[in-house]
Amino acid sequence: MDQNPVQPAEVDGRAEEDEEFYMASQWQLMWWKFKKHKIAVTAVLILLLFFGVAIFADFVAPYQPRSRHTGRVLAPPHSINFLSEEGGFNLRPFVYGFDYSIDMQTGSRIYEVDQDNKIPIYFFVRGEEYELWGVLSSDLHLFGTEEGGEIFLLGTDTMGRDLFSQIVFGARISLSIALLGVVFSGLLGMIMGGISGYFGGKIDNIIQRVSEILRSFPTIPLWMALSAAIPPQWTPVQEYLGIVLILSLIGWTSLGREVRGKILSIKNEDFVTSARLDGSSTPRIIRLHLLPSMVSHIIASLTLAIPRMIIAETSLSFIGVGLTRPAISWGVLLEQSQQTRHLISAPWLLTPGIFVVIVILSFNFMGDGLRDAADPYSSLTE
Amino acid sequence: MFFDYIVRRLLIGVFIIFIISIISFFIIQLPPGDYLTTYLAELSAEGQRITPAVEQRIDALRERYGLGDPFHVQYFSWITGIILRGDFGYSFQWNSPVSAIIWGRLGLTLTISVSSLFFSWIVAFPIGFYSAVKQYSIPDYIFTFFGFLGLSIPNFLLALVLLFLGYQQFGVVFSGLYSSEFAGEPWTREKFVDFLRHLWVPVIVLGTAGTAALIRVMRNNLLDELQKPYVMTARSKGLSEFRLLLKYPVRIAINPFLSTVGWMLPFLLSGEIIVGTVLSLPTIGPVLLESLLGQDMYLAGSFVFLLGVLTVVGTLISDILLALVDPRIRYD
């Protein structure tokens, strides 16, 4: 007879990594499962890049968003070259400058590439001065040109402002408004859904009816009506908070419903009943037993709610009832392309839309990965 | 049983409409001051003399709509006007009763939304079916990708891109719902054909996101069904694959299509407001926007109210259809 103590891992022939698997915490399991979702991981990386750009907007953008280049109204995007027309290869990328003439019939400017005017692009170049986050003053930019040169990666708008710089600054507002909106509507949804699911009965009934009405209502007209009522004399900050509030007042319902459903399904689980029999107070049960088993689902749903917020803000600002200049969001930037004449002659005005789609796609993929990972015990054997 | 169910649903519907009317009236009351005060201020700012005739008219309007009365009194006179006389109030921007403006536009908005709904159904059904039956095939991945993309493009952006492409490729500006020579003409065969020729742009723009969502719904439902034991039983008994699929799993998977009306309709009506504005359609969108920006609140409030009523009615119809089609629904 074997005198050694029994090693369970040896008995059923499992390797050591399996043991690691069974010892792992819930969060570790989720992380492993999320990592397998390659598209979701890529999406996270893209989003990190966008947030980084938004945070360091002043540094990334070659120009301040409101500085106007009066000679360059509606100039097309510069294309970056490495090869000069003689065929020589330059390690330092450069753009060609523009010449313009005025079309006598339409009065619009026609830009022509000036092959003789090579403008080299420098990295970490000194340019327009700025104050990062209102405290750090500097004039260092990620890239740019020397004094007298110009670079418009995505062209300029109707006032001669560099579109790329505006998009970089617009990311700040578009991304933060969506995040704030989701945080607020998440809080509201959790409170309402939590009360509804935990207490049940009459309160549940009332909250459910309210959320049903809000959900059956077409949201855009409601949002439009509420944001049109924002007084025009409000400062951009007040306007911004107002929009966040309006978005979340109507947006909480789907999360509320989910939280309620989740609570209903776990509040009668054995571990909750035992806790109650043990004499735990309601807040303690909610905090220690209900919340931890829901947090992952809530995070996944919140992520999937962000795209809706971005679409809402962008749409409202686009038709002119959301944010307005001087605030710069992607929706505000797209507003210019509402005029068919600009859309046709300057299609690059649509480029903020590409960024909107990339961000929404990324959040959707990330949310999808999170939702799969949120329940790490669903497929232990995978 | 079934009759009771319908009556109960109707009563709930009426109650929800009542709440919606209060919200709508709240929106009407939202801007500070009333329109008549603004209007008078504008007149005097333009240096016009306020003649006794003008004053009289304004007093009459103020009297008629009970401006200055407390909220519930004003609400009561507003809602009874709608129910008893079909009077939705007065549009100060258009200088005409609201009811003269809304019906035609509401009809077109509804036409576009319902067309988009059918478009989504027709496109999503075969694609969802295929994706589920051939799960993890290359077309399935392609459809899934386009589904994600369709969900990620805001309506108005898609409209803008189509506008631009239409001009660049064909030299046409896709806007409006009929050619200019038909504007204001009565409906004839030619106008209807012309109308259909314009209709597809907003229908595609509006339908894309919904289609993407429906494909996923159809695919997931059918996949769930296909895993059930009865499918395996049928297969082992030698039922042909085609009959096996169509006879039961598809029938069950299709039920959610009917219940989608409940969330698709508000979603489509919402989207139509934006798309209508971008494509300058003669629908509710542009007028609602204009009335909100100009604080023409009776017009704006009526639109919000009617859009709400439409969605309640749509949801009701879909609930009743669902109860008829799916015998498993319990009537309580």
Question: Would you give an account of this structure?
Answer:
The complex is a heterodimer of chains A (382) and B (332). Chain A has 15 helices and five strands. Chain A is of the alpha+beta class and 382 residues long. Chain A has two domains: 93 residues, no CATH class; 209 residues, Orthogonal Bundle (MetI-like fold), CATH 1.10.3720. In chain A, a hairpin with a 6-residue loop joins strand 2 and strand 3. In chain A, helix 6 runs antiparallel to helix 7, helix 6 packs across helix 9 and helix 6 runs antiparallel to helix 12. With 332 residues, chain B is mainly alpha-helical. Chain B has two domains: 96 residues, no CATH class; 225 residues, MetI-like fold (Orthogonal Bundle). Chain B has a two-stranded antiparallel ribbon with strand order 1-2. At the A-B interface, helix 7, helix 8, helix 12, helix 14 and helix 15 of A face helix 1, helix 6, helix 7, helix 12 and helix 13 of B.
Q: Keywords, please?
A:
heterodimer; A: 382 residues; alpha+beta; MetI-like fold; 2 domains; three-stranded antiparallel beta sheet; two-stranded antiparallel ribbon; 15 helices; B: 332 residues; mainly alpha; 14 helices; 77% helix
Please outline what is shown here.
Chain A is of the alpha+beta class and 382 residues long.
